[in-house]
Amino acid sequence: MSRIIVAAHASFCPGVRRAVTLLEQAAAHGGEGIYCLGEIIHNR
After folding, report:
1. How large is the C-alpha radius of gyration of the chain?
2. What is the model's pTM?
3. d(Cα 25, Cα 17) in Å, to the nearest integer?
4. Model confidence at 3, in pLDDT bands (50, 70, 90)?
5. Rounded to whole angstroms, how far apart are CA atoms 39 and 36?
6. CA distance 8 to 4
7. d(Cα 2, Cα 15) in Å, to the nearest integer?
8. How far apart are CA 18 and CA 12, in angstroms?
9. Which helix (H) or strand (E) holds 27?
10. Is 35 exposed, middle or buried (0-12, 13-18, 19+ CB in 10 A)?
C-alpha cells in the first residue's frame, strides 16, 4: 500500500492564493455570476 506524506508547511504558491482571493472577492461583490475559461488551480 502506498503512503502519502504531506509536509508540515505545505501551502499554495502566491499566484494560487491571489487567484482564490480574487474569486472570493468577486463572489462577495455579487452580480450575474463568475465565469472562468479553464482551471483556476492546475497543480499537475
Report:
1. 15
2. 0.61
3. 12
4. very high
5. 7
6. 13
7. 30
8. 10
9. helix 14-29
10. exposed
Average pLDDT of 30-42?
85
Name the nearest CA neighbour of 20 among 38, 41, 44, 4: 41
Place of cell 509536509: 7
C-beta separation of 20 from 27 below 8 A? no
Question: Per this entry, what is the length of the chain?
Answer: 44
Residue with cell 468577486: 26
Using CA atoms, how far apart are residues 33 and 31, in angstroms rounded to an integer?
Answer: 6
Query: Where along the chain do its domains lie?
Result: 8-38
Look up residue 44 and give its three cell numbers: 499537475
List phi, psi (to 5°) of 5: -115, 120
